[in-house]
Amino acid sequence: MGLGVRLRVAACVAALFVATAAVGADAPSEIKIGTLYSGSGQLSGTSMPVHVGLEYWADGVNKAGGLYVKAFDKKIPVRLISYDDQSTPALAANLTNQLITRDKVDILTTDSTSIMTASAVPVARDHKMLLWDLTGSSPKFFSPDNPYIVLLGLAATDRYAKSVVGFVPNMAKLGIKTVALLYITADYTAIQAEQIRKAIQAESGLKIVFDRGIPTNTTDYTVLVNDVAAAKPDAFFEFGYPANELGFLRALQDNGVKFNFLYTVYGMSEQPLMATNGVVDQLLYSYSLAGPAAYQFKVNYGLDLPHYRHAFLEWAEAHNPGVEFGFNAVAGYHAGLVIEKALAAAESLDQLELRRAVFSLSGNLETLVGKFELAPDGSQSGLIAPMGQVVPDKSDAKAPPVFNIVAPPELATAKPIYPAP
Q1: Are residues 257 and 165 in the same domain?
Q2: 235 with 309, same domain?
């Protein structure tokens, strides 16, 4: 080897050493993840389990020495920077801006629900910061010209109720002719109601006899339940957040009202919360989507449902007692898994590179929430839950109710029981 060649090789080795040292020097001491939660107010029951699920994930990552960040080829601890937005969208917008401008977070997540997410979307876009949307599923958040948002925890609301929409044509075969709809006017619930309404209107054998939207802060359903009962529907679809549905089920209980077919949003996915509040009996023979807290999806990354349920309840009891296990607790943990996998794939912490890394997971990642599949605009098209019916456990009368999957046909484990006994 000639002198000139040796010098060039030495120079390349030196350059490589310097570059490697620079990467190591530039690696941050921690990955800062900014997030909001509703510690009080109307949405706290929905928000807190999501936040605690995310905290559980972060704690586990740090106990394992951090998460692997490809951009620096090393494990780095994570730090959650969390603020309580008190279920107030205007405060959430200000705190989102604070996370970006003052705290300078690497990863920006939302509070749960579309109500709270709506205030963060324009702030993140204005700052060209990728918004890791935990559960805010309104399709209004997503557009081809906004690359700064990606939905993690459930399908966009216009796709979320796909299993129920597919079930509607079978309702007339059960003897159902008339249907009632009652829904909170927030995007998450109103858009689900809209999808079901369209499916019902497409069936000549079905007629809507009651159709009403109500404010998000509704918790007293006494008059509403009596109004629906007076319409004498064969089937009743009710759409609310957990606090709404607790009020709804209490009204059924107090009024002694029963419907032959009842659908709720959270009857299965937040059943422990319903049991704690003494209304679970009102859900017997009702229907809802069997979300990831009720249905065991195949997993190729992270804990499966039984192991996560046990770990979450044990961790929450020690760190945040009283938080119920359900879909929202699962969604928070799932969000952490997506962040973890994306950072292991991203070449840098540039926001659009992080977006590319998240999209590289689409169709390949299966967690306890289901199969992760993104549409080009960042909305979620995967994570579709089957529709189920709550039934008593025949093997143990004292055990919690179990779930029969009734739709889609390829996943069904039983035929629907109608009318409710």
Answers
A1: yes
A2: no
pLDDT averaged over consecutive 10-residue blocks of the chain (421 residues)? 44 42 69 97 93 98 98 98 97 98 98 96 98 96 97 94 96 97 96 97 97 96 97 98 94 95 90 84 93 92 97 96 92 98 98 98 97 98 95 83 93 96 93
Based on the domain organization, do 287 and 325 belong to the same domain?
Answer: no
Please, are residues 121 and 111 in contact by the beta-carbon 8 Å criterion? Answer: no
Q: What is the pTM of this model?
A: 0.87
Q: What is the pLDDT of residues 335-371, one digit of tens each?
A: 999 999 999 999 999 999 999 999 999 999 999 999 9
Looking at the structure, tell me whether residues 349 and 364 fall in a common domain.
yes
- Residue ending a domain, choose from 371, 395, 415: 371
- Length of the chain (residues): 421
- The CATH number for 276's domain is 3.40.50.2300
Number of CB atoms found within 10 A of residue 226's CB: 12
Q: Determine how many CB atoms are found less than 10 A away from the CB of residue 411.
A: 15
* 177 residue type, one letter: K
Q: E strand or H helix at 391, and its extent?
A: strand 387-391
Q: Are strands 235-239 and 178-184 parallel, antiparallel or unpaired?
A: parallel
Domain that holds residue 269: 160-294+385-407
In a domain, 304, yes or no: yes
Both structure tokens of 292: 């990831």
Contact status, residue 280 vs residue 223, Cβ threshold 8 Å: no
Handedness of CA 241, 243, 245, 247 (dihedral sign): negative
Cα–Cα distance measured from residue 413 to residue 290, given in angstroms and rounded to the nearest whole number? 12
Give CA–CA dist 299/178, Å, rounded: 40
Angle CA 281–286–288, to nearest 5: 120
Q: Which residues pair with 133 in a beta bridge?
A: 151
Same domain (yes/no): 218, 270: yes
- Taking the C-alpha atoms of residue 153 and residue 327, their distance in angstroms, rounded to an integer, is 9
148 and 277, same domain (yes or no):
no
Dihedrals φ, ψ of 59, to 5°? -65, -45
Task: Confirm whether 45 is domain-assigned.
Answer: yes
Which residues are registered as beta bridge partners of 374?
Answer: 380
Least Cα distance to 224 among 183, 189, 270 occurs for: 183
Separation in Å, CA 363 to CA 138, 346, 372 = 21, 17, 6
- 80-109 exposure pattern, b = at least 16 Cβ within 10 A, e = fewer: bbbbbbbbbbebbbebbbbbbeeeebbbbb
Whether residue 376 is contained in a domain is answered as: no
Is 311 a member of any domain? yes
